[in-house]
Amino acid sequence: MRYSVGIDMGGTWIRAAVGTEEGTVLKKVTVPVDPLADNTSIINQLESLILEVSCESLGEINGIGIAAAGKLDLKTSTIVFSPHTSIRSLPLGTLGERLKKPVTLLNDGVAAALAEWKLGAGKGHDNIVYVGIGTGIGGGVVVDGHLVLGKEGNAHEMGHMIIDAGGAIECECGGRGHWEAYTSGSGLPRLSRLLAQSFVGNTPFLQKSLRGKVEAREVFEYAKNGDNFALCVVREATRLNAIAIANLVNLYDPSLISVGGGVAVKNQEFVVSPLQPYVERFSFNSPPKIVPSPLGEDAPLLGSIISTFGL
Ligand SMILES: [Zn+2]
Protein backbone atom coordinates (compact mmCIF):
# COMPACT_ATOMS: atom_id res chain seq x y z
CA MET A 1 0.00 0.00 0.00
CA ARG A 2 1.27 3.50 -0.85
CA TYR A 3 0.96 6.46 1.51
CA SER A 4 1.14 10.22 1.11
CA VAL A 5 0.76 13.29 3.26
CA GLY A 6 -1.98 15.74 2.36
CA ILE A 7 -2.45 19.29 3.64
CA ASP A 8 -5.56 21.41 3.26
CA MET A 9 -4.74 25.10 3.78
CA GLY A 10 -8.14 26.74 4.11
CA GLY A 11 -9.18 30.20 5.24
CA THR A 12 -9.82 29.13 8.86
CA TRP A 13 -8.13 25.75 9.42
CA ILE A 14 -5.04 23.87 8.28
CA ARG A 15 -5.69 20.12 8.13
CA ALA A 16 -2.86 17.64 7.65
CA ALA A 17 -3.18 13.88 7.25
CA VAL A 18 -1.42 10.78 6.08
CA GLY A 19 -3.53 8.54 3.88
CA THR A 20 -3.56 5.95 1.15
CA GLU A 21 -4.07 6.09 -2.59
CA GLU A 22 -7.62 4.78 -1.98
CA GLY A 23 -8.39 7.72 0.31
CA THR A 24 -8.17 6.02 3.71
CA VAL A 25 -6.94 8.54 6.29
CA LEU A 26 -4.67 7.01 8.93
CA LYS A 27 -3.81 10.06 11.02
CA LYS A 28 -5.12 13.61 10.91
CA VAL A 29 -4.29 16.86 12.69
CA THR A 30 -6.23 20.14 12.50
CA VAL A 31 -4.83 23.51 13.61
CA PRO A 32 -6.25 27.03 13.24
CA VAL A 33 -4.81 29.40 10.63
CA ASP A 34 -2.67 32.14 12.17
CA PRO A 35 -3.92 35.15 10.16
CA LEU A 36 -0.72 37.13 10.85
CA ALA A 37 1.90 34.42 10.19
CA ASP A 38 4.79 35.26 7.84
CA ASN A 39 6.11 32.93 5.13
CA THR A 40 8.92 31.48 7.25
CA SER A 41 6.62 30.56 10.12
CA ILE A 42 4.03 29.07 7.72
CA ILE A 43 6.68 26.84 6.08
CA ASN A 44 7.98 25.82 9.53
CA GLN A 45 4.42 25.06 10.68
CA LEU A 46 3.72 22.94 7.57
CA GLU A 47 6.98 21.05 8.02
CA SER A 48 6.20 20.17 11.63
CA LEU A 49 2.63 19.12 10.69
CA ILE A 50 4.01 16.82 7.97
CA LEU A 51 6.49 15.27 10.41
CA GLU A 52 3.75 14.88 13.04
CA VAL A 53 1.24 13.04 10.84
CA SER A 54 3.87 10.89 9.17
CA CYS A 55 5.17 9.92 12.64
CA GLU A 56 8.69 10.94 11.53
CA SER A 57 8.81 8.06 9.01
CA LEU A 58 8.93 10.23 5.90
CA GLY A 59 10.92 7.59 4.02
CA GLU A 60 7.75 5.58 3.39
CA ILE A 61 5.82 8.59 2.11
CA ASN A 62 5.16 8.82 -1.65
CA GLY A 63 4.80 12.59 -1.74
CA ILE A 64 3.23 15.69 -0.23
CA GLY A 65 0.00 17.07 -1.63
CA ILE A 66 -1.12 20.58 -0.74
CA ALA A 67 -4.60 21.94 -1.37
CA ALA A 68 -4.58 25.70 -0.90
CA ALA A 69 -7.20 28.42 -1.01
CA GLY A 70 -6.15 31.38 -3.12
CA LYS A 71 -4.45 32.30 -6.35
CA LEU A 72 -1.71 29.85 -7.31
CA ASP A 73 1.16 29.51 -9.75
CA LEU A 74 1.53 25.76 -10.28
CA LYS A 75 4.63 26.19 -12.45
CA THR A 76 6.58 27.48 -9.44
CA SER A 77 4.48 25.72 -6.72
CA THR A 78 3.67 29.11 -5.21
CA ILE A 79 0.59 30.46 -3.46
CA VAL A 80 0.53 33.95 -4.95
CA PHE A 81 -2.28 35.44 -2.85
CA SER A 82 -4.82 34.08 -0.39
CA PRO A 83 -7.62 36.53 0.42
CA HIS A 84 -8.58 35.13 3.85
CA THR A 85 -5.05 34.74 5.24
CA SER A 86 -1.76 36.67 5.37
CA ILE A 87 -0.23 34.47 2.64
CA ARG A 88 1.51 36.40 -0.14
CA SER A 89 3.99 34.71 -2.54
CA LEU A 90 4.53 31.56 -0.47
CA PRO A 91 6.99 29.24 -2.29
CA LEU A 92 5.96 25.69 -1.35
CA GLY A 93 8.73 24.12 -3.45
CA THR A 94 11.13 24.94 -0.59
CA LEU A 95 9.15 22.53 1.59
CA GLY A 96 9.79 19.73 -0.90
CA GLU A 97 13.50 20.59 -1.01
CA ARG A 98 13.75 20.54 2.78
CA LEU A 99 11.93 17.21 3.15
CA LYS A 100 13.27 15.71 -0.10
CA LYS A 101 9.80 14.77 -1.29
CA PRO A 102 7.84 15.88 -4.36
CA VAL A 103 5.17 18.49 -3.64
CA THR A 104 1.90 18.55 -5.62
CA LEU A 105 0.02 21.83 -5.25
CA LEU A 106 -3.64 22.26 -6.21
CA ASN A 107 -6.29 24.85 -5.55
CA ASP A 108 -8.39 23.53 -2.64
CA GLY A 109 -11.58 23.50 -4.72
CA VAL A 110 -9.81 21.61 -7.51
CA ALA A 111 -8.44 19.10 -4.97
CA ALA A 112 -11.94 18.63 -3.55
CA ALA A 113 -13.31 18.07 -7.07
CA LEU A 114 -10.63 15.42 -7.63
CA ALA A 115 -11.64 13.66 -4.40
CA GLU A 116 -15.33 13.93 -5.21
CA TRP A 117 -14.73 12.46 -8.68
CA LYS A 118 -12.49 9.57 -7.56
CA LEU A 119 -13.89 8.76 -4.12
CA GLY A 120 -17.19 10.56 -3.57
CA ALA A 121 -20.49 11.32 -5.28
CA GLY A 122 -18.79 11.83 -8.67
CA LYS A 123 -17.60 8.22 -9.03
CA GLY A 124 -18.70 6.96 -12.46
CA HIS A 125 -19.39 10.49 -13.80
CA ASP A 126 -17.27 12.11 -16.55
CA ASN A 127 -18.59 15.64 -15.97
CA ILE A 128 -18.92 17.05 -12.48
CA VAL A 129 -18.71 20.39 -10.74
CA TYR A 130 -17.72 20.63 -7.08
CA VAL A 131 -18.77 23.78 -5.23
CA GLY A 132 -17.25 24.47 -1.81
CA ILE A 133 -19.09 27.01 0.33
CA GLY A 134 -16.90 27.67 3.36
CA THR A 135 -15.00 30.73 4.59
CA GLY A 136 -14.88 31.66 0.89
CA ILE A 137 -16.35 29.91 -2.15
CA GLY A 138 -14.24 27.76 -4.44
CA GLY A 139 -14.63 24.77 -6.64
CA GLY A 140 -13.36 22.48 -9.30
CA VAL A 141 -14.56 20.95 -12.53
CA VAL A 142 -14.11 17.66 -14.33
CA VAL A 143 -14.97 17.90 -18.04
CA ASP A 144 -15.10 14.78 -20.23
CA GLY A 145 -13.03 12.83 -17.70
CA HIS A 146 -10.32 15.50 -17.24
CA LEU A 147 -9.68 17.58 -14.12
CA VAL A 148 -9.41 21.15 -15.43
CA LEU A 149 -6.48 23.19 -14.03
CA GLY A 150 -5.98 26.27 -16.22
CA LYS A 151 -2.71 27.95 -17.21
CA GLU A 152 -1.56 28.60 -13.61
CA GLY A 153 -3.95 26.33 -11.72
CA ASN A 154 -6.69 28.89 -11.12
CA ALA A 155 -9.29 27.53 -13.55
CA HIS A 156 -12.28 27.72 -11.25
CA GLU A 157 -12.15 30.76 -9.06
CA MET A 158 -15.92 30.59 -9.12
CA GLY A 159 -16.24 32.49 -5.83
CA HIS A 160 -15.14 35.62 -7.68
CA MET A 161 -17.82 35.31 -10.39
CA ILE A 162 -19.94 38.45 -10.48
CA ILE A 163 -23.48 37.61 -9.39
CA ASP A 164 -24.55 41.15 -8.49
CA ALA A 165 -23.94 43.59 -11.33
CA GLY A 166 -24.77 46.46 -8.95
CA GLY A 167 -21.82 45.39 -6.79
CA ALA A 168 -23.47 46.28 -3.48
CA ILE A 169 -20.94 44.26 -1.45
CA GLU A 170 -17.15 44.43 -1.75
CA CYS A 171 -15.25 41.13 -1.81
CA GLU A 172 -12.12 40.50 0.30
CA CYS A 173 -10.18 40.42 -3.01
CA GLY A 174 -11.18 44.05 -3.60
CA GLY A 175 -13.69 43.32 -6.38
CA ARG A 176 -17.40 44.08 -6.11
CA GLY A 177 -20.45 41.85 -6.55
CA HIS A 178 -18.46 38.61 -6.26
CA TRP A 179 -20.37 35.47 -5.24
CA GLU A 180 -18.35 34.66 -2.09
CA ALA A 181 -18.83 38.18 -0.74
CA TYR A 182 -22.56 37.36 -0.36
CA THR A 183 -23.10 33.72 0.65
CA SER A 184 -19.83 32.29 2.04
CA GLY A 185 -19.07 32.16 5.75
CA SER A 186 -17.35 35.53 5.46
CA GLY A 187 -20.06 36.89 3.13
CA LEU A 188 -23.28 36.01 4.97
CA PRO A 189 -22.73 38.61 7.72
CA ARG A 190 -22.34 41.26 5.00
CA LEU A 191 -25.45 40.05 3.17
CA SER A 192 -27.35 40.21 6.48
CA ARG A 193 -26.24 43.80 7.04
CA LEU A 194 -27.21 44.78 3.49
CA LEU A 195 -30.68 43.21 3.70
CA ALA A 196 -31.28 44.58 7.22
CA GLN A 197 -31.35 48.11 5.82
CA SER A 198 -34.49 47.44 3.75
CA PHE A 199 -36.28 44.67 5.68
CA VAL A 200 -39.82 45.55 6.67
CA GLY A 201 -40.60 44.13 10.10
CA ASN A 202 -38.79 43.56 13.35
CA THR A 203 -37.13 40.35 14.55
CA PRO A 204 -34.36 39.48 17.03
CA PHE A 205 -31.93 38.69 14.21
CA LEU A 206 -32.74 41.96 12.45
CA GLN A 207 -31.96 43.87 15.66
CA LYS A 208 -28.68 41.97 16.04
CA SER A 209 -27.73 42.62 12.39
CA LEU A 210 -28.46 46.34 12.74
CA ARG A 211 -26.45 46.59 15.98
CA GLY A 212 -23.23 45.15 14.55
CA LYS A 213 -21.45 42.21 12.99
CA VAL A 214 -23.20 38.84 13.13
CA GLU A 215 -21.58 35.49 12.42
CA ALA A 216 -22.58 33.19 9.56
CA ARG A 217 -23.61 30.40 11.94
CA GLU A 218 -26.07 32.79 13.63
CA VAL A 219 -27.97 33.25 10.36
CA PHE A 220 -28.78 29.52 10.42
CA GLU A 221 -29.35 29.34 14.19
CA TYR A 222 -31.94 32.13 14.04
CA ALA A 223 -33.47 30.65 10.84
CA LYS A 224 -33.91 27.30 12.65
CA ASN A 225 -35.87 29.16 15.33
CA GLY A 226 -38.17 30.68 12.70
CA ASP A 227 -36.77 34.22 12.75
CA ASN A 228 -38.34 35.84 9.67
CA PHE A 229 -35.38 38.07 8.88
CA ALA A 230 -32.87 35.19 9.16
CA LEU A 231 -35.13 33.14 6.85
CA CYS A 232 -35.16 36.08 4.41
CA VAL A 233 -31.32 36.10 4.42
CA VAL A 234 -31.28 32.32 3.82
CA ARG A 235 -33.76 32.66 0.91
CA GLU A 236 -31.71 35.42 -0.72
CA ALA A 237 -28.49 33.40 -0.23
CA THR A 238 -30.18 30.40 -1.88
CA ARG A 239 -31.30 32.55 -4.82
CA LEU A 240 -27.75 33.90 -5.29
CA ASN A 241 -26.18 30.43 -4.92
CA ALA A 242 -28.65 29.11 -7.52
CA ILE A 243 -27.80 31.93 -9.98
CA ALA A 244 -24.07 31.12 -9.68
CA ILE A 245 -24.64 27.37 -9.94
CA ALA A 246 -26.92 27.81 -12.97
CA ASN A 247 -24.05 29.74 -14.62
CA LEU A 248 -21.77 26.76 -13.90
CA VAL A 249 -24.36 24.37 -15.36
CA ASN A 250 -24.50 26.43 -18.54
CA LEU A 251 -20.69 26.62 -18.78
CA TYR A 252 -19.79 22.97 -18.12
CA ASP A 253 -22.94 20.87 -18.71
CA PRO A 254 -22.22 18.57 -15.72
CA SER A 255 -24.25 15.47 -14.83
CA LEU A 256 -23.61 16.10 -11.13
CA ILE A 257 -22.97 19.06 -8.86
CA SER A 258 -21.76 18.28 -5.38
CA VAL A 259 -21.80 20.97 -2.74
CA GLY A 260 -19.35 20.87 0.16
CA GLY A 261 -17.43 23.31 2.35
CA GLY A 262 -18.05 24.02 6.02
CA VAL A 263 -21.07 26.31 5.61
CA ALA A 264 -22.87 23.86 3.30
CA VAL A 265 -21.89 20.72 5.21
CA LYS A 266 -23.08 22.09 8.57
CA ASN A 267 -26.32 23.59 7.21
CA GLN A 268 -27.36 21.24 4.41
CA GLU A 269 -31.09 21.75 4.92
CA PHE A 270 -30.72 25.51 4.38
CA VAL A 271 -27.86 25.62 1.85
CA VAL A 272 -28.05 22.48 -0.34
CA SER A 273 -31.58 21.02 -0.12
CA PRO A 274 -33.46 24.06 -1.57
CA LEU A 275 -31.11 24.48 -4.59
CA GLN A 276 -32.47 21.96 -7.11
CA PRO A 277 -35.73 23.70 -8.18
CA TYR A 278 -34.05 27.14 -8.25
CA VAL A 279 -31.17 25.94 -10.43
CA GLU A 280 -33.63 24.18 -12.75
CA ARG A 281 -35.49 27.46 -13.15
CA PHE A 282 -32.33 29.50 -13.89
CA SER A 283 -30.29 27.16 -16.13
CA PHE A 284 -30.40 26.86 -19.91
CA ASN A 285 -28.76 23.42 -20.03
CA SER A 286 -30.60 20.38 -18.71
CA PRO A 287 -30.13 20.45 -14.94
CA PRO A 288 -27.77 18.01 -13.20
CA LYS A 289 -28.44 16.31 -9.90
CA ILE A 290 -27.32 18.53 -7.00
CA VAL A 291 -26.12 16.66 -3.91
CA PRO A 292 -24.33 17.45 -0.65
CA SER A 293 -20.74 16.20 -0.77
CA PRO A 294 -20.53 12.84 1.04
CA LEU A 295 -16.87 13.63 1.81
CA GLY A 296 -17.83 16.56 4.04
CA GLU A 297 -15.15 19.02 5.04
CA ASP A 298 -12.41 16.48 4.26
CA ALA A 299 -12.84 16.69 0.47
CA PRO A 300 -9.86 19.04 -0.18
CA LEU A 301 -7.66 17.06 2.24
CA LEU A 302 -8.50 13.74 0.54
CA GLY A 303 -7.89 15.36 -2.84
CA SER A 304 -4.47 16.59 -1.72
CA ILE A 305 -3.50 13.05 -0.66
CA ILE A 306 -4.63 11.31 -3.86
CA SER A 307 -3.21 14.10 -6.08
CA THR A 308 0.29 12.84 -5.23
CA PHE A 309 -0.48 9.58 -7.08
CA GLY A 310 -1.34 11.37 -10.35
CA LEU A 311 -4.18 13.59 -11.55
ZN1 LIG B 1 -13.56 38.43 -5.06
In words, what does this structure look like?
The protein has 311 residues and is α/β, with parallel strands linked by helices. It folds into two domains: 3-106, Nucleotidyltransferase, domain 5 (2-Layer Sandwich); 121-294, 2-Layer Sandwich (Nucleotidyltransferase, domain 5). Helices cover 37% and strands 23% of the residues. The chain is built from twelve helices and 13 strands. The protein has helices spanning 39-53, 93-99, 108-119, 180-183, 188-196, 204-211, 216-224, 228-252, 262-266, 268-271, 275-282, 299-307, and strands spanning 3-9, 13-20, 25-32, 61-68, 71-73, 78-81, 88-91, 103-107, 128-133, 137-143, 146-147, 256-260, 289-292. A five-stranded mixed beta sheet has the order 3-2-1-4-8, with helices on both faces. It has a five-stranded mixed beta sheet with strand order 11-10-9-12-13, sandwiched between helices. A three-stranded antiparallel beta sheet has the order 5-6-7. Helix 5 crosses helix 6, helix 5 (188-196) packs across helix 8 and helix 8 crosses helix 11. Zinc ion is lined by residues 160, 171, 173, 175, 178.
Q: How do you describe this structure in short?
A:
With 311 residues, this protein is an alpha/beta fold. The protein has helices at residues 39-53, 93-99, 108-119, 180-183, 188-196, 204-211, 216-224, 228-252, 262-266, 268-271, 275-282, 299-307; strands at residues 3-9, 13-20, 25-32, 61-68, 71-73, 78-81, 88-91, 103-107, 128-133, 137-143, 146-147, 256-260, 289-292. It has 2 domains: 3-106, Nucleotidyltransferase, domain 5 (2-Layer Sandwich); 121-294, ATPase, nucleotide binding domain (Nucleotidyltransferase, domain 5).
